[in-house]
Amino acid sequence: MADNADHIDGDDNEDVRAQQNLIKIKLKSSEGGIYECGLTAAKMSDLVKNMVESLGTDAVVTTEPIILGNEAVTDAALKKIIEWVEFHWDDPPVDHDFEDEKDRRNEELSHWDKQFIDVDDQALLFDVIAAANYMDIKGLVEVGAKHICSKIRGKSCQEVREMLKITNDFTAEEEDAIHKENAWIYAKD
Amino acid sequence: MAQNYSKDSFDRFGDDLCQELLSYMAFKDRFRCECVSKQWQRVVFEGQLALNIKRELFDDNFSQIVSILTKCSNIRRVYSEYEEPVFKSFELIFLVINLCHHLNDMSFIVSEDNVHWINHFMAKFAKQMQCISFDFDDKAMIDMKHKWLKMCVNLTAIHIPFDELSKSRLGFSPRNDLHYKRLNSLHLTFSKSNDNSIDINLCAFELFARNYGHNIKTIGFTINFLIDDEMVNRLTDGLKRMPALIALDVKFNVFVDYLLPLIGLKCPQLKALTVDTSHLRETFKAINQCFNQQLKRLKINVWDYQQLSVDSLNSLKRLTHLKLFLVETTLTGLFFANCHHKWPQLRYLRANRVLITNQLLNALSRLRHIRHMHLSGRPVPTPRHGIQNVVINCPKIDCRLHSSKGKEVPEIEELFRKLMSGQSDPETSSSDVKSKYFK
User: Fold this and answer.
1) How many angstroms separate the CA of residue B299 from the nearest CA in chain A?
2) Residues of A in contact with B61 (CB under 8 A)
3) pTM value?
4) E strand or H helix at A169, and its extent?
5) ipTM attached to this prediction
6) N or C: more exposed end of chain A, with fewer CB within 10 A?
7) How far is CA B251 from the centre of its chain?
């Protein structure tokens, strides 16, 4: 009987989420651009969710936009982020009851996410990741992380540095010593 | 802080975010990238939580494995996928004791060589272990196992032979106190044993169900020996007394007819079922007749050939995840016919040995909630209409169609990419497909 109840709840939630996403709220980037976003989608950001909850939904809808003051939240990054949450807002929630949910961490990115995150402009890519981190959108940070880790796969230190524009702050001797310690990984590659 | 760095440089990220971003790296990549920068060196090993022991990690003086265990200081789990001989070595246990601090999951192959060091291991780690298992070269040492298990009071999962249940603290409870307060998973292996011990161990299982039943979420059975009706009855009565039981995992090396039907009838609380068997038809029959509406997740591994008919797997109204791994049987469109009526909630489908046709994809594209569909088998030839329907009807789907060797088919990938990004397929007219299938 309890089972039935949770089933009905589940369906209700789905409808409520869909209805709430018809409500639009405004998000303001650090550059001043104002963009509309569905409420359910916007609440994928824990930062926005907490603000909406403390201000009350009505206040958020009728008054000023929510200001995202971090400099990573540029107009372009915010547009990308809204695109992502508007696609993912109706993702089924993680069901912690089931052990196999943990496998999701090891799963490859979906085709859509792969296309979404494969941005040529690295400054924009990093803005999206930093902004998602600031806005606390865990799913999107994960997409960024998996994208970067898959690009690194099999690359040498120097290639990684060049690709991600990282400054090498090791001395040549330090770097040699580390290479020697880790020489085993090249043995059977 | 961030102003100091160029916006397109990874250096702009602080340690916390950097660590999170690098936590998905492959094991060897971490070592390859350690010297990218000092920041990377600080964080790159933090997310490595498990270590798969392989021969190649060992050199003659163990300096490699020492270096690995020192660098990966967050290791929680040490295991060996292919049970490499080095995994048995007392040197490994010695090094783990000295270099690991957060370990909570390890298995052992106990021998005279390493028993001394396992005692040491227990002195350091027993209280933090969540999962542990022992195999024995020498059966005379089995009592050691129960001594060690007794020390691990915080275990969340235990694997033991059914025969030993009465010897363990699971079926022995003088004052009804729980020895393992965090235990939520038990796996039992059934092998040939003498009749006297069966009754003692069944009593122990009943006691276990009474004492631990309220916490147990997962039960696993590996069945290597034909168990009789009486025993099946008492075991399933035990399961019935576990209100929190969500998942059941049964591996039949010997098939027992009555087990699945009785579980289905007695355990309406179950939501996930995994079956490993050579009896596909009997398994489907038991699920159809006895499990009807409760299951949300179903995973079946079959390692024998059996012909399937249309009604092989009937309606499961709440099923969200279906995984089928077959060795000989081929799944055709017939198996998936009317799937949107049979499994209306399905959102995750994984199957191999599928004959991927337009008809099959058209049927699957009518699943309203489907989000992941990974099929491998034989795509014949390129099912363009089917793929179009999947994309049109399920715009949020992640669909992968692979050849039987698990490889992506370039032509299909390309078609998906095109359609997903809103282009039309030049070889079919999409308006004509839409009017036919999309309402």
Assistant:
1) 11
2) none
3) 0.89
4) none
5) 0.91
6) N
7) 13
